[in-house]
Structures are given as C-alpha cells and as structure tokens.
Amino acid sequence: MVDISDVEIIAPNFKQRLSGVTSTIIQLIPVQRTLGQKVAALGPGLPESLPHIGYRSLPSLWCRPKNRALRVWHARRNIEMLPAIFMRDILRMKLKIVFTSASQRKHSGWTKFLVSRMDAVIATSNRTAAYLEVPSTTIMHGIDTQRFFPAPDKAAAKAVLNLPADKKIAGCFGRVRHQKGTDLFVDSMISLLPQRPDWIAIIAGRATPSHQPFETELKEKVKAAGLSERILFVGEHTNIPDWYRALDLFIAPQRWEGFGLTPLEAMATQVPVIATDVGAFSELLVTGEDETGILIPAGDLAAMADAAASLMDDPERTKHAGERGLSRAIASFSIEGEASRIGAIYEKLLSGGVFA
Questions:
Q1: pLDDT in tens, 103-127
Q2: Any idea what the Cα angle at residue 93 is, between residues 87 and 95, rounded to 5°?
Q3: Are the C-beta atoms of 265 and 241 separated by less than 8 Å?
C-alpha cells in the first residue's frame, strides 16, 4: 500500500481475470514510477509488488494530493469510467478522467456516453482512433526492451529450451483459440514443413477450458499429418522472452485483435514477422523495401503459407527483416516512450489543461 496523499494518478483494474489491459497496467506502472509519475493501482488481480491503494482510500479523493489541485483517474474499461464519473460529477471529488480505448469496432450508445464524459481520451492506434467520436491522442503500446532482446547465440537459446539447435523454428504465441488463428498457423505448417526438413514449429500458449476441444482437434490433425515431432504444443510459459529468442520466424495469425503486442515482442528479439491485417499490426510492421515483415489478410490461409514460404526459403531476406524490426522496436516502440507520452497527458490535466 502507498500513501494516498502522495498519489496523483490512479490506475484502476476492475477485472479479476488476467487480460491484455491488466498486463498493460502491470508493465507500465513501474516504468511510470521511474519517470516520476506518482501512479498507484486500485483493484484485484495485480501483483502485490505493484504500488497500489485500497478502496478504503477513496474518500480521500475529496482532498487534494500533495502539491496538486486534483488527481487523474486512468480508466481502460467501461466499468472503470462509470464510477469515476460518479465520483467526479456527483460526489464532486477532485478528479480528472482519462480513458484509453483499444477497441476497433463501433461503440454502443452507452460506451459513447461514457467516453463523451472523459477529460482526455487515448487511442492505442490510428485505426482505433477512427472509431472514436471525440478528440483523442494516439499513443501506441511499447515493449520492454530490457526483457525482450535478441539472442547472442541462437543455437544456445534453443538448447536452453530443449529445442533442436540445428533446426530453424517458426512460432505462434498466445491463447490457443479460433479468434487467435492458431488453426491457420497449424494448417500452414502442415503444408510447409514436409518440404522443409530444416524447419520445425512451436505453439506457445494456453487453451482455457472452453477452448481445449479446439486444441485437442489441432493436435489430432498434426498427429494425422505425421508431424507431432515437428509441430510442438509447448503450453504456457512465464519466460516467454526466452521462447522468442529461440525463433527464426514469428507468425501472428489472428482473425481479430484489439492491439496485439506479439509482433512487437518478436521484433524486439530480432525475429521477422508475418502478421494478419488486424489490430495495430499494420502500424507496427513495415512492408516493402525496408520490411520488418509481411502483412497478410486475416483468415487467408494461402497468403499465410505463401508468406511463410517466402521467408523460410530466403535466409538473407529473413535476416535483414529481423534486423530492421529490432531497430524499429527500439526507436519507435519502447515502453519508456509510451509511459512518457501518457505522462504528458497526465501533466496537462494535473496542471489544469483542457483537451478539446
């Protein structure tokens, strides 16, 4: 617990289950604190090590923090906007409200109303901003380059994970489910690997109970193709940067995505990327002459297989795409840069500024 009088920004997390939003809060707050932003979390499902306040501290929001006239409440979900509006407008607590939107679909009337009551709105991509009917600032997610960095020795990185050091590896990481396109990755590897004996594939991620039949079906399909030793389901791991460092190619096959950090995580580990045109992927990757990877239509299995083949069969192209991806991740998508840009929004509100 931290002293509420020394907290200027509150980051609520009103969802118990781990999600992308929760992960964003967990990663951002320590970086924000190192930049001097007096942020604390509120709510369940967060590590105890994270600076946080309890619900009993909320009556203190009638009082000013040290050296400021008000506080900022940074909501990322509807259930976090609503209580903030009540506290600010009905209880007259000294608050300004920021909302970060990652949604890429038309908002309901209720969501539009809540968003219209915000003091500032952040969009996580330009595509997301296009769905908003209020002014917004685009601040894309960043990556922790202290965790995600290239392998000094690729063969050693594979050996540490008991993967064959003499094979090249294509990977697909994330929840195992239809929305994530895991089946497209598996089908593309079934079609490509028999002609490429120097390649294997891994799927890292967990299938929640409702999606376990889907995972079982994929494993049976792999077995029927005689590729159980070359298309590996390795499950969920906490040391996911180590798994990225073992890869030679990363494929993000999602059918739908709000933002999607996996291409950035791969780029930061100097791994070339093939990604579907969903979420923010088109804004993360560079295609063409200075490519960091290849963008393909969502749900297009033939395009995925063709793109993967073009990189698998061209080591020089793969090498240069990985190098350019690393440079882009460091230059444009550091988590410190994200935290700094969000901090500028906070500072304007804390200083009495208005976003129009």
A1: 888 889 999 999 999 999 999 999 9
A2: 85
A3: yes
pTM above the 0.70 mark? yes
- Cβ 100 vs Cβ 258: under 8 Å: no
How do residues 295-337 score in pLDDT, each as one tens digit?
A: 999 999 999 999 999 999 999 999 999 999 999 999 999 999 9
Three-state secondary structure call for residue 36: coil
Please state which of the four CATH numbers 3.40.50.2000, 1.10.3720.10, 3.40.50.720, 3.90.470.20 is assigned to the domain occupying 154-332: 3.40.50.2000
The CATH homologous superfamily of the domain defined by 4-142+335-350: Glycogen Phosphorylase B; (3.40.50.2000)
CA distance 129 to 277: 16
pLDDT of amino acid 356:
58
Residue type, 300: D
Q: How far from 54 is each of 18, 27, 60, CA to CA, in Å?
A: 19, 20, 11
